[in-house]
Amino acid sequence: MLPKLPALLAKQVPATGIGLFRIAYGLVTLQEIIFLFYFNHLIFDPIPFIDVEFPTIPLFLCLWGLVACAVTVGYRYQAALLSNYLFWLVFVNFTPMQRDFDGGFDLFMIGANFFLLFMPGERAFSLDNLRRKLSTPFVPYQHYAPATVSVLAYYVPVMICLGFLYFDSAIHKLFAEHWRNGLGSWLPSTQPYYVSALDMSWLLNNEWLEKTIGYTILVFQFTFIFGFHQRRLRPVYLLVGMAIHLGITLSLNIYPFGLGMLAFYTLLVPFSVWRTVGRWLCAAQPVLTVFYDKQCPLCNRTVLTLNHLDIFKCIDFKNAQDHAANYPALAALSPQTLLTDLFAVDGQGRLYSGVDTYSQILVKMRWLAPMGLILRLPGIHLLATRQYRAIADTRARVECTSTCLVSPPFTETTAYQRYFVGLANTKPKAFTRKLGKILTAIVLLQLNSTFHYGIVYRLDIDTTQNPVTNIMAKGSNAVLELSQTFLGIAPHALYLHDHFSGYDRIVAITYTDAQGQEQWLPFVNEQGRLLAPNWGRVHSMWANIAVTPTINNVRLEKFIMKVTAFWGHQLGLNLNNTVFHIQLKKINAPNHWVYDQLHQNFAAPWVPIGSAKWTNNVIAVDLPNNINSL
Questions:
Q1: d(CA 351, CA 349)
Q2: Claim to verify: residue 180 and residue 309 sit in the same structural domain
Q3: Nearest to 27, CA basis, from 461, 19, 439
Q4: Which of 329, 458, 579, 609 has the fewest Cβ atoms within 10 Å of its own Cβ atom?
Q5: In whole angstroms, what is the distance from residue 101 CA to residue 20 CA?
């Protein structure tokens, strides 16, 4: 790609995919913040609800949520993305999220955020675009040229964040027997801890189909970086990649990872598809014509804002002074009356004014129709009418020339505008060289991670025997710490043999209620599935840290304490009067295909192996000394 940088830099394409990627990334971040808020006592308290070490966590999560909303809607894009990046860094590196509650996609989200800082994410579907328009006089929507960006804004993030991730992951997969057997997608989906509520047995019980999927994933990940930018191959990689990550989202309980990866595929959709979808969604002709006073700055700002929100192009805006005479419904009104309200005429020639005009506009926009219907409710309509009249009857009118600004000039610039546009236009050769060096450095950082973990670690090469290799290994480690922390570059060795080898027992918790009946804690159910909402990073805590192929009693007892304290409080249990029972089930995680393995694991019996009892906010856990021998 480096030799083609000048040509790719000059090639302009629609900004639609970039804007949708920003929205998808913001929504994934927002759902994760909501998840953290719900589980904040489980994740951040040393003892949930009893020992609250970080009482201000909810406040900072709310602030982060506001930032994520700003990212989603594209408001003050650069500041919002930088703040979001810092929130990810702080929460991932300085809270228990890093050690005990790894979400499996935190570093990926940090890397994506880093690239978004230098992408023109505000060029489409953003409030910053509206702010930019508000700094100039209003023109009809057809006069606003569609925003375009360099095609590199699509290719670079996909190459780094997806291409290298896939290639690194594929190298690790070659060392896993079940992946070499074509069962990479099958094995996790037969383990009770990892599956969602959907029963995928119809797929899991077809050996050849499962092996086809497994080998397809390997080929896809090895070749993605070399073929995704090819015009003819892009649809293939798009469909296969979306199918893989949609499957992860639906069939496994690590849905945040699946959603985060799916967000990137908005950048892989062919540009012709966005154009076709746009033509299909947009109205063939406006269904409502709105008339405004062109000499009213407030009217100009209002109409421009409404025009910006009319993404399906259903509304036409015309100034009343020049166009009202062409419409019979308006011709009968006096010039004075015509300028006192915002009027609208629909396709049947019906006339609307004031609040009714706003209601019609919102309904005709389609996506804001609920707000338009709410505005028609009797009480709300009355209050809105009073407020409307108070504003409309006191608004100022001025003689506005073509150079009149309806708002202060928009002066904010993003990193993309400063460097990718500004420097590229003034010094294209120098910029191309600089960009090439930056991309080369990122590639080397990724290769360092892949070689360190994917080759040296997997082949168990001893680097300490030679002084030179020892120094190189230490230097590699130091670089890895920085690249992993700030760029999200990390090994992608997920669900390999070193994770499932020996994973033949799982643990659940029950309790005796006030009536003396044994109940399952709403955490792990009778089948062994982790119940919603205990998915994502809570699943990672229990299935990847508390319960592993070699169970550590100290670690398990710590998380039994956290889970019983959290869910005991959520259920309203009196901890000091409740006895919790620790249950163990034997399961299988074979490297060869077994018919109906998922239901065999579901049906395996539970055996009580211990108990947990709280006394004065202190828990006593009674477990066998060596659970691994059971």
A1: 6
A2: no
A3: 19
A4: 579
A5: 29
